[in-house]
Automatic annotation (TrEMBL), chain A:
Residues 25-307 form the Carboxyltransferase domain. This is Biotin-dependent carboxylase uncharacterized domain-containing protein. One of its GO terms (molecular function) is hydrolase activity. Residues 157-169 have a biased composition (Basic and acidic residues). PANTHER family: 5-OXOPROLINASE SUBUNIT C (PTHR43309), CARBOXYLTRANSFERASE DOMAIN-CONTAINING PROTEIN (PTHR43309:SF4). The keyword Hydrolase applies. It holds the Pfam family CT_A_B. The lineage of its organism: Bacteria, Pseudomonadati, Pseudomonadota, Gammaproteobacteria, Pseudomonadales. Keywords: ATP-binding, Hydrolase, Nucleotide-binding. It comes from the Bacteria. SUPFAM superfamilies: Cyclophilin-like (SSF50891). The keyword Thylakoid does not apply.
TrEMBL record, chain B:
Keywords: ATP-binding, Hydrolase, Nucleotide-binding. PANTHER family: 5-OXOPROLINASE SUBUNIT B. NCBIfam families: 5-oxoprolinase subunit PxpB (TIGR00370). GO terms for molecular function: ATP binding; hydrolase activity. InterPro entries: CT_C_D, Cyclophilin-like_dom_sf, PxpB. The keyword Hydrolase applies. Residues 8-208 form the Carboxyltransferase domain. It comes from Marinobacter segnicrescens. The keyword Chloroplast does not apply. SUPFAM superfamilies: Cyclophilin-like, PH0987 N-terminal domain-like. Gene3D superfamilies: 3.30.1360.40, Cyclophilin-like. This is Sensor histidine kinase inhibitor, KipI family.
């Protein structure tokens, strides 16, 4: 079978696509690629369906061997991707022959690297998604281990043309980890009126540091605590929901969150800003700024429109599709 | 009976989600209202809907933002009361019976809870199984149904230190809520017994649905095993962290 044999998954690698939607009412967490932008570009580079599954690699440390001819793309956290010791272009396309060895060192900055294969990885699909939410313990949907084979479609010869390997996502389209001078947007939440005005001001005027207790479920932040107004009756938790638990330190819930929760919610971080947060490492500093839902929706629509309207020409250049 | 009142507060909570909040309290009267709204929203939004999460006093509607913006979704949601007023009232949810073996070997908190309330373990079982519960929400893990309301005589807070491993089937109480853990997971609810019925499997998905009613039936060890229950005694192997 054609595929990629894992020699070392690094600290944490999982298969992720757009997530398992439509089953949150059964308590199934959607999961899905935490950096939407990097995941979408990895598929775009190869002309994959936009929802194809990629491997999400956390903090590098990944090694694997090709079984068969493979055409791959890598996006996300920067740097240190090698095939047989030779560097491959960042946010670009490369091929592997049987026995070739892929290695990812620790990225220079950012946390998550996305590895796509032509046609998408053919791991188990359950309820329309190959996304892994490891704690749910669904059959075959677990974090990758040494010796696992990631199955892929045999490569089509025209797909492996030289020009496709020239494709590279221009710098301006790449995702960046959140930084204090580019704050995360915050859509006002349902419990905003329960917080003291001074606490709401504190939330957007303070620096917060990403805690070591952060993962795909949610990011805990260290910094000025808010006075928690107590809990609310449990209701749905979104990707980006900011929860204020008893200790007053904000938590931003991400893809592998539980579907409902009872902490008070001052606001929600929109999806593209969750992507920037998910690229932060423990210790990185972030800030928040209020934004309205119309603005966040428009920004997301522009992103969707751009992803749909751009394509690669014969020379491997990114162009806006006509018509 | 009409299911239109009360009207919810409608808030766009994310770029692709709108919250409908009917009440901030736990209210058994609301359950049929929430179920009726959920069904009507599914019908009204059709393909635009990506997820719908009912819970206690609210419904969160997730939608495909490439097919509708939040203003359109809110406008569509505002037509629901009129639709509901033309529909016959919903029947009460399905009644699901769940057998439980109430015993200290699989319910490690049964004796301490009984002792604290001046009851015998059997009396705790009798009180817990005397109520017909409403399923208010599913969450925490696949198939985990939050049910209520537990009789104040046996209602008890969560453990101060949650356990890292609670076996599948464990029946727990947290304040006035009760639930069965569908799979091995961490958990802080006080455990009083074990249920042999699978609450989630990959072929049939979740056994319970929001709006269902549940009655627990006390069974003995023999019957519990006959029904496929795992009688392995609960072992608190944890050392304090």
């Amino acid at each position: 079978m054609t595929g990629l044999r894992i020699e070392n998954p690094g600290p944490r690698s999982t298969v992720q696509d757009g997530g398992r939607t439509g089953f949150q009412h059964q308590g199934l967490s959607p999961g899905g690629a935490a950096d939407l932008r990097a995941w979408r570009w990895a598929n775009h580079l190869l002309g994959n369906p936009p929802d194809a599954a990629c491997v999400e690699i956390t903090l590098g440390g990944f090694a694997a061997e090709a079984e068969g001819d493979l055409l791959l793309a890598v996006t996300g956290a920067s740097g240190a991707v090698h095939v047989n010791g030779k560097p491959v272009p960042e946010w670009g396309v490369f091929s592997m022959l049987p026995g070739d060895r892929l290695q990812l060192g620790a990225p220079g900055h950012g946390l998550l690297t996305y590895l796509a294969v032509a046609g998408g990885w053919r791991t188990r699909s359950f309820l329309g998604s190959r996304s892994t939410v490891a704690r749910e313990g669904l059959r075959e949907l677990r974090a990758l281990r040494c010796g696992d084979l990631l199955p892929a479609q045999p490569i089509r010869h025209e797909a492996a043309s030289d020009t496709i390997r020239r494709r590279q996502v221009p710098e301006q389209w790449r995702s960046q980890p959140a930084q204090p001078d580019k704050p995360l947007k915050l859509i006002p939440g349902p419990d905003r009126s329960q917080f003291k005005p001074t606490d709401l001001a504190r939330l957007v005027l303070s620096d917060y540091r990403v805690s070591g207790l952060s993962d795909r479920m949610g990011y805990r932040l260290e910094g000025p605590a808010l006075c928690s107004p107590g809990g609310v009756t449990s209701r749905a938790v979104n990707c980006g929901t900011v929860q204020i638990p008893g200790d007053g330190k904000p938590m931003v819930m991400l893809n592998d969150r539980q579907t409902i929760g009872g902490y008070t919610v001052p606001g929600t971080v929109p999806r593209l800003d969750c992507s920037r947060l998910a690229q932060c490492r423990p210790g990185d500093v972030i800030r928040f700024t209020w934004a309205d839902v119309a603005e966040c929706q428009a920004e997301r629509m522009v992103f969707e429109e751009q992803m749909n309207s751009m394509s690669w020409d014969q020379e491997g250049r990114l162009v806006r599709r006509r018509g | 009976m009409t299911v239109t009142a009360p009207l919810p507060r409608i808030i766009p909570v994310a770029e692709d989600a709108v919250l409908l909040e009917f009440s901030q309290q736990i209210d058994p009267q609301l359950a049929p209202v929430i179920s009726a709204w959920a069904a009507a929203i599914r019908q009204q939004l059709g393909q635009r809907l990506t997820d719908l999460v009912p819970s206690y006093g609210s419904i969160t509607v997730y939608y495909d933002l490439t097919s509708a913006d939040f203003r359109l979704i809110i406008s569509l949601l505002k037509t629901i009361p009129e639709k509901l007023s033309r529909q016959p009232a919903q029947r009460p949810g399905r009644l699901v019976e769940l057998p439980v073996w109430y015993h200290p070997s699989v319910g490690p908190d049964l004796e301490s809870l009984a002792h604290a309330r001046g009851l015998s373990p059997d009396q705790v079982a009798d009180i817990h199984s005397a109520t017909t519960y409403q399923v208010y929400a599913l969450g925490f893990s696949p198939g985990f149904g939050f049910m209520g309301l537990v009789d104040p005589a046996v209602a008890t807070p969560r453990l101060e230190r949650p356990r890292t491993l609670v076996p599948a089937g464990s029946v727990g109480i947290a304040n006035r809520q009760t639930a069965v853990y569908p799979s091995l997971s961490p958990g802080g609810w006080q455990l009083i017994g074990r249920c042999p019925t699978p609450l989630f499997d990959e072929d049939n998905l979740a056994l319970l649905t929001v709006g269902d009613r549940v009655r627990f039936i006390a069974v003995n060890r023999h019957r519990f095993v006959e029904l496929g229950g795992d009688e392995t005694p609960f072992e608190d192997t944890e050392s304090p962290r």
